[in-house]
Amino acid sequence: MTSIKILPIFNQSAPGVWDDFMRIQSCAMRHVYNLRMDASDIDSCIRELRYKWARNGFNFAFGAYDDDMMVGYISGDCADNTATVNSLYVMPEYMGQHIGGRLLRLAEHSGAFGAMDMELVSLARAQTFYERFDYRPILAGSNHYIKPITPDMRARCKTMPVFKSTRSITRACSDIAVKNGAKYDALNVNNRHTPTYVYMDVNANIRAFGAETDTPVPDVYVAPHQPREYISRVINREFDALRHLHELMTNKQNQR
C-alpha cells in the first residue's frame, strides 16, 4: 500500500466527490455501529450536502487518498467566526493509521481562516478521539464539542489551500499581486473554486499565493524581500500533487 496523501477538495460539487463521501461514510458506519445505510439514506445525505454547499459560502474539505482512491475525508463550513466540522470518516481498513487526526489538523489550520472556534457534534464512539485533540463538550454529557483556535495553531511556514477568499486573504493577496504587476481575482476562488494556495510565514502572515491556470504551470506571486525561489517551489509542489491525482483519476476513468 502506498503512502496516504491528503489533499484539499476545492469543489465538492465536482462529479463523484459526494459519492465518495457516502461510500466512505456508509462503510465506516457499518463497521463501527453495524448501521447499514440504504439507497434512500444515501440520497438524503447527498441532498443535505448539496444544500449546505449551496447555502454556505465558506465550505472546506480534505480527502485522504491511496493512489486514486479516496479512503477518508473531512468536510465542514465556516460562519460567524466558527468553523464547523460536519463529517469525518475513514474507511475501516484504513483506521488506526492516524488518517483521521491528519484530516482534523488540516481542517483546524486551513478550514478555519478567521475562525475563533472549531465545533462539531460527535458520534458516541468518536468522543475519545476528539478529546485527544483537545475538543471538549460545551456541557457535561453533551456530544456537542468545541475547541478554541489559538494563535499557536495558525499555520506557519506552510502552504495552505484557500477555500474562500475572505477579506483578509483578498487584501493580502491583492497587495502581493500589485507588487508583482498582476491582479488577484477573488471571484475565481469563491465562485469558480479555482485551486489556490497561500504561503504563510513564521508569524502566520500571507507572503505569497499561487492560483491554477489553464497551463501546466500555475501563477505564483511572492511578496518582495521573500525567498522567491523556495516559496515558488513549495507552492508548485502542492499543485503537482493535485495534478498527479487528477491524472490518476483520468486514467482510471479512461480504462473503464
Describe the model:
With 256 residues, the protein is α+β, with helices and mostly antiparallel strands. The protein has 7 helices and 11 strands. The chain has helices at residues 17-33, 39-55, 99-111, 127-132, 167-179, 186-190, 228-255, and strands spanning 5-8, 59-66, 69-79, 82-90, 117-121, 136-137, 144-148, 158-161, 196-200, 206-211, 219-222. Strand 10 (206-211) and strand 11 form a beta hairpin. The strands form 2 sheets. A 7-stranded mixed beta sheet has the order 1-2-3-4-5-7-6, with helices on both faces. Helix 1 crosses helix 2 (39-55).
Output mean pLDDT: 92
Order of helices and strands: EHHEEEHEHEEEHHEEEH
Number of strands: 11
Query: Which regions contain 5 or more consecutive residues with pLDDT less than 50?
Result: none
Describe the biggest sheet? 7 strands, mixed
Strand order of the largest sheet: 1-2-3-4-5-7-6
Secondary structure elements and pairings:
Elements: E1 5-8, H1 17-33, H2 39-55, E2 59-66, E3 69-79, E4 82-90, H3 99-111, E5 117-121, H4 127-132, E6 136-137, E7 144-148, E8 158-161, H5 167-179, H6 186-190, E9 196-200, E10 206-211, E11 219-222, H7 228-255
Parallel strand pairs: 4-5
Antiparallel strand pairs: 1-2, 2-3, 3-4, 5-7, 6-7, 8-9, 9-10, 10-11
Helix pairs in contact: 1-2
